[in-house]
Fold this sequence. Notes:
Elements (H helix, E strand, L loop, with lengths): L1 H24 L3 H29 L7 H21 L7 H16 L16 H30 L5 H37 L7 H21 L5 H25 L16
Helix pairs in contact: 1-2, 1-4, 2-3, 3-4, 3-5, 5-6, 5-8, 6-7, 7-8
Amino acid sequence: MMNVLFFGGLILYFLAMVMRFAGSVFHNENLKKIAWYIFLAGFAAETIYLTARGIIAKRLPLSNQFEFASAFSWAIGAMLVFLYYKLHADWIVTAGIAGTFLIISYAALQPREITDLMPALRSYWFGFHIGTAAVSYASFLLAGAAGIRYLLAAKKEKEAKLLEQIDYFTYRLIALGLLMLTITILTGAIWAEEAWSAFWTWDPKEVWALITWIIYAVYLHLRLNRRSSASFLAWYAILSVPVVLFTFIGVNTLLPGLHSYGALIRDLTA
């Protein structure tokens, strides 16, 4: 049943992505609406899956690469639902659904066994540290998607209002992501002192989290001081996403450290 929920959600995300792209290419609003409802069905399936997994494991489902990737994709989906219904930002749906599908596809490649928490992970900081990282990464990925949409809209005439809206939402998404990443780093430092008797160890995950933080802090500086054009900032948001993905995937794969617990699936992914 658990596999049905997980892979059912993945397939539904894929179908939603294909239909949304088709609706956008052929300017078919009915296809777009169907794609959105299919996406919601996939999001519901993933929500039920993560809830059930947490109940079975008797902890938050955030303890390994599979669980973090699943939470990452879920966070993208949750933010997409909020942007769509609360802020009526339909323009980000196509890229947002694609991002959700790609992240959950990565999760599908990871071992899915449910394991007990390692001693170092048994802390009240567990949910704060890793949960805020998932929200942070989701915000940055959606900001990159918004950047792509900005550049596409900039090629058309009479899009000034839409461009202003996209630029504003990109800024807000990055501000949220930076806030969440700040909490991630601070709670991680406190947790590290408790677990390893040091607030900062220059572990690869810590270093790349800091690099990511600096990159997005520079974006906010440029945006708030109006020292760069909106097109430049859109490119900046897009080109910053690979850094987030490297912090998420590349560090665990290529630069093992204190945040990686052997060849098992128990690695602290934030």
